[in-house]
Amino acid sequence: MSSEQLATSTAAPSAHALGHRPAISRPDALSPAALADARRHQPLRGLIGLAFVVPVTVLLSIGANGAGHSLILLGPIITFALPIMAMIAFWWEDWPGVMFPRHWSGLYDTAIVVAGGVLLTVLGQLVVNGPDLIGVFAPDSAHTGTYPATLQLSGCIFTIMLQLTLVCERRPLDGFGRIPSGLAALVLCWALGLIAWLVAVRSQAIAGEEYGSWFVSIGLWQMIFYTTLRGWPFARIERRWLRLLLGNVTVIACGWGSYLLASGGLGWPGARITAVAGTGIGCVLLVSMLFEAWPAIRATDSLALGRTIAVSVTVILTALLVWSLPMLAHALGVPPEHEWGWTTHVTLNSLSTVVILHVAVWRRWPARISSPEDP
After folding, report:
1. Strand, coil or helix: what is 143?
2. Spatial distance between the Cα atoms of 38 and 27, rounded to a whole number of angstroms
3. Region at 151 (left for phi over 0; alpha for psi -120 to 50; beta for the rest)
């Protein structure tokens, strides 16, 4: 996947025009020129991007007074900010940043993401733990923090946002116009996520940790089908109702099946399932967005081979991080019961956020190799 798939122009987008599908899930999202450009500039463009992605990921992972405190303080805020980032990238297509000079455009969108993440975390704290601002920013024995209780709510909302955006192709809200549709999507996903959380978790029908791991498992398959595979095998089904039906059923079934396999077959606890699936999501974005599916894009003669390479690289990288990050958490003094949680924070929260910001919001600035499709 290329940055052109998420931010195709530096001109302000029309307030009334949304494409038939999000660019990320169109099978022909890359023009021949953009594909040739990705082949020519990768992996150099991705390696240059790592100079931004790695330090900022480290900062978000350990920068708030150590690894353990960063997890508790920043983890919920970043998770609540993810639906806002999805709205800007997939619905607003980088608005309002595209209204400003390129070098500053990402700054405005990032400010919206940060401010929105903080405000929604405060709202999440109100819903889950009651009105306690101190618990959001300085939790202690007298003030219940947002970690981990609010994560089941925020993770559910983000998964629903991706399901509506990618799998449902932004329908039925896309007819409202670009900006209203994005806001409507955010409100709808919050409403659905809140209802689901109240019915399943607040009622104690399902343990919060298991509830969260099930949604993250679905999120992993959303990213595999609609980012790594760019909508395959659904994207070329011409009948929209059939395409949407099969996409929704398959993604949810795969998420449910992988969760049952991990929990029942392998005996993994919910925190470990969340960490593995969350790491997979981060690796999908790293491989398919930052490196534009390199080296899979080199397989010019076989789409099947290219897809196989992309998935294989993602799986190998996921396995490496799932093996190494818990050991790093232990070395950094993260409490044993939070080692899997910190692994999730590093990959699903920090890494995923920084990759999307760098590619889709900042459009690889300042470390940027221009594309032939750029104006």
Report:
1. strand
2. 16
3. alpha
- Identity (one letter) of the amino acid at 103? H
CA distance 172 to 291: 32
Buried b (16+ CB within 10 A) or exposed e, 201-215: beeeebebbbbbbbb
**Which positions ≥6 away from 254 have C-beta within 8 Å?**
218, 221
88-111 mean pLDDT: 74
Residue 370 to residue 299: CA distance in whole angstroms: 23
Q: What share of the chain is helix, strand, coil (3-state, %, to 5)?
A: 70, 0, 30
> Structure tokens of 107?
């700054």
Residues 162/219, Cβ–Cβ less than 8 Å: yes
- Count CB-CB contacts under 10 A for residue 49: 25
Residue 301 CB burial class (10 angstroms; 0-12, 13-18, ≥19): exposed
Residue type present at position 262: A
By the 8 A CB rule, do 228 and 287 touch? yes
Condensed to tens digits (0 to 9), the pLDDT of residues 160-204 reads 999 999 999 888 887 888 889 989 999 999 999 999 999 999 998
Residue 366 CB: number of other CB atoms within 10 A? 10
Distance CA 8, CA 10 (A): 7
Question: How buried is 333 (Cβ within 10 angstroms: 0-12 exposed, 13-18 middle, 19+ buried)?
Answer: exposed
10 within 8 A of 105, measured Cβ to Cβ: yes
C-alpha 91/C-alpha 273 separation (Å) is: 30
Cβ 42 vs Cβ 369: under 8 Å: no
- In this prediction, residue 32 carries a pLDDT of 66
Is residue 285 within 8 Å of residue 356, measured between CB atoms? Answer: yes
Q: What is the pLDDT of residues 317-367, one digit of tens each?
A: 999 999 999 999 999 999 999 999 999 999 999 999 999 888 888 878 766
Q: Do 358 and 3 meet the contact criterion of CB atoms below 8 Å apart?
A: no
Nearest alpha-carbon partner for 167 in 199, 189, 151: 189
For 123, the enclosing helix (H) or strand (E) is helix 102-128
- Which sequence spans correspond to the domains of the chain? 3-361
